[in-house]
Amino acid sequence: MLGEGAPQEAGSANQRTRRAVDAVIVLLCGRSFSGKSTVAEVLVPQLPATAVSLDAINAERGLDGGQGIPIKEWSRTNAVARDRTRRCIADGITVVVDDTSSLRFLRDGWRALAGEQGVPLVLVHIDTPVAVSLQWHRTNRNNPSRDDVDDAVMLAHLESFEPPGGDEEVIRFVPGASDLPDLIAALRLRGGTGDA
């Protein structure tokens, strides 16, 4: 019989599809200093998942996002993040994308990637009040726990931030008011990761 006993190629389309079925893209969205990286650190072992941090990729590339990065360089960083995400998805690994996802077209690009890969995308809006983000920004400047963001860059970011619209399916999480176990349970239900 044709194909009987024939070895399958490693990484064949069928194998990739079977592995990818288990993967999900969890896209974090929120202003700078909203707590996205802190949420990502909790989600990664709980889902389980791999984090793809655009700040970390910028640092690897020798770029300091806190001082402002030209759009051309942000585009390159996004391309690296998407490539890493594709590789994880191909191996059936859920990805938590740690980025501001501050503009609608960026979120739409991640949705397109999820569609191309045949996996769900779950958008999580870390909806920290602006006053709290600004307070965390000032606190970080006095007692650094992460790289600083220049005041002008921070204000420009806050002014240009586009929160998810009513037509975007989103899980809203408010640090201090929302419960992380509830967020993890919602992600498992929406994305099909782990035990519900």
General description of the model:
By secondary structure, this protein is of the alpha/beta class. It has one domain (16-189): Rossmann fold (3-Layer(aba) Sandwich), CATH 3.40.50. The protein has helices spanning 13-20, 36-46, 54-60, 71-90, 104-117, 130-142, 151-160, 180-191; strands spanning 25-29, 50-53, 95-98, 121-126, 170-173.
Helix and strand topology:
Blueprint: H1 13-20, E1 25-29, H2 36-46, E2 50-53, H3 54-60, H4 71-90, E3 95-98, H5 104-117, E4 121-126, H6 130-142, H7 151-160, E5 170-173, H8 180-191
Question: What is the tally of helical segments?
Answer: 8
End-to-end separation in angstroms reads 42 Å
Summarize the biggest pleated sheet.
Answer: 5 strands, parallel
| Average residue pLDDT | 85
Shape descriptor: globular
Give the tally of structural domains. Answer: 1
Which properties best describe this structure?
single chain; 196 residues; alpha/beta; Rossmann fold; five-stranded parallel beta sheet; 8 helices; 12% strand; disordered N terminus
Describe, in short, the structure shown.
The chain is α/β, with parallel strands linked by helices and 196 residues long. It is 48% helix and 12% strand.
